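Anyone opening a protein record will find just a pair of labelled lines. A complete record is shown below as an example:
=====
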Amino acid sequence: MLNKKLFTKISLLIVLFIGFNSFAQSQAIVDEIVNAEEYSLFTEKLQETGILASLENDADYTFFALNNEAMKNIPSEIMNDADDLNTVLSNHIYKGKWSLEELAAEMNSKGGKMPIKAINNFYSGVYLDGNQVIFLTPKADKITLEEATVKPDGVIYNLDQALIPADF
C-alpha cells in the first residue's frame, strides 16, 4: 500500500513538472516581448485589449512588434477606439515561427513572394529582394526585416511603423 501511494505521488510530481516545463517553454516568446523595454507600450496595449491572453499556450508566434516610437505614432483616433486598436495590434502577430531563414526558404519555394496571415486573418505580403526579406505594409510601405529575436516558440521583429489597414 505504501509503495502504491509513493508511486502515485511521484507520478503526480512528474506530470506537474512536465506540464509546468511545457507551459514555461511555450510562453518564452511572450515573456521575451513583455519584458523588453523597447516594446513596453506595445505589450501594455496587447494586455489591455486581451490579445496576449487570447494566444494559445502551445503555439508558436511571430511578432512584428511595434517599438515605443512606433506606438507613439499611431493616430489617436485608432488608439482611442478599442476595436480599431485591437485590429491594428492583431495585424502584428502571426501564428507560426518565421525566422528570416524560414521566410526566405518558403519564399524561394513560392517564386520569391508570399502572403502571411495574422491572427485576425489579415494578410501581409513578404517578398525577397536579392538576399533581403521585405515586408510590405498595407499602405505599400516597404520594411526590410532585420535579424530578430528567436526563441523556441517564436520570433520577434522590431518594427518602427504600424501595420494600419489601408481603409483606416
Notes: The domain at 2-159 is CATH 2.30.180.10 (FAS1 domain). Residues 6-26 have pLDDT under 50 and may be disordered. Residues 141 and 147 are 19 Å apart (CA to CA). The chain has one domain: 2-159.
